[in-house]
Amino acid sequence: MINIVQSSGVFNAPSDMIHFLENLITSTNLSIVNFIDHMNNPHPDGYRNVLIYVAIMGKFGPKLLVKVSLHLSFMYEQLEELKVSESCLEESQSWRYCKDICFQIDSYE
């Protein structure tokens, strides 16, 4: 078995996420291997989601392991905005560093 697939599900309401999980549990072709509840036990930064590892079952057992992150839409949008902000901050810091180095080089000439 190999983990070659990773995906995310984004839900508008907790009830939608619960409905998805109920359908997943009753599926005969899928089996939950690991369930990590960050809704009730949030990440250190306060972010909440659910992480599950699902085995896609074949005739002779598990064929594929899929990592699925489940998010609520309003939290996921904030997470994506934070990623963009962090990326911009990193670029800004890189630019300042480059500018500082270039300034030092110019001052030696």
- Uncertain stretches: 95-99, 101-109
* Structural domains: how many: 1
Q: Average the pLDDT over all residues and give the rounded result.
A: 76
- In helices, the fraction of residues equals 40-55%
Strand order of the largest sheet: 1-4-3-2
User: What are the secondary-structure elements, in order, as H or E?
Assistant: EHEEEH
Q: Got a strand count?
A: 4
Outline the structure in words.
This protein is of the alpha+beta class and 109 residues long. The chain has one domain (2-108). Helix content is 45%, strand content 36%. The chain has 2 helices and 4 strands, in the order E-H-E-E-E-H. It has helices spanning 14-26, 73-108; strands at 2-11, 30-37, 50-58, 61-72. Strands 1-4-3-2 form a 4-stranded mixed sheet. It is elongated, with a radius of gyration of 21 Å.
Brief overview:
With 109 residues, the protein is α+β, with helices and mostly antiparallel strands.
Topology:
Elements: E1 2-11, H1 14-26, E2 30-37, E3 50-58, E4 61-72, H2 73-108
Parallel strand pairs: 1-4
Antiparallel strand pairs: 2-3, 3-4
